[in-house]
Amino acid sequence: MKKQIQYLLVGYPFSGKTVLAKELEKRFGFLRLGIDAVKFDLGYKGISDSNISDTVWKRIFRELDRRITEYLKQGKTIVNEYAWLTKDWRNRARNLADKLGIETKIIFINIPEKVVRERWKINRMTKERFDVPDDVFEEAIRLFEFPTPEENILYYNDKDTIDIWIKKYIK
What we know:
The chain is of the alpha/beta class. The protein has 7 helices and 5 strands; from the N terminus they run βαβααβαβααβα.
């Protein structure tokens, strides 16, 4: 049996976190979590992030924390595709796992800002995924803190295919 791990996918919006998370879910049966699913489950589907109050965001994050803890207690390996923009946010999720004796690994989707901006603009035309408003996108770019070596990082970039990356890092 594989060791239980909490994977936090870290990267800019439109970096490919959801694509990788879905692939890990499909191939390994990892439980995929994300802030958008929690937001939608709590009745905020179709509402822009910028139109959600701080009080509601606190409720959404409490629910995400509850789900992380519940699934880890059930013995599941989780892949959490929320952007985890800041080290403080990542440490919050890490602490939940640490209390249960479960390792957290950061999967840093290291895609350049220029590339994610282009993907964001293309999405405005194709509407392949929901739109991220300008203010929300710019705030994510502004808040983003690159992971540091002590965070237990697995690096993913657009040079490796998903197959090659999985063979290298997910055993």
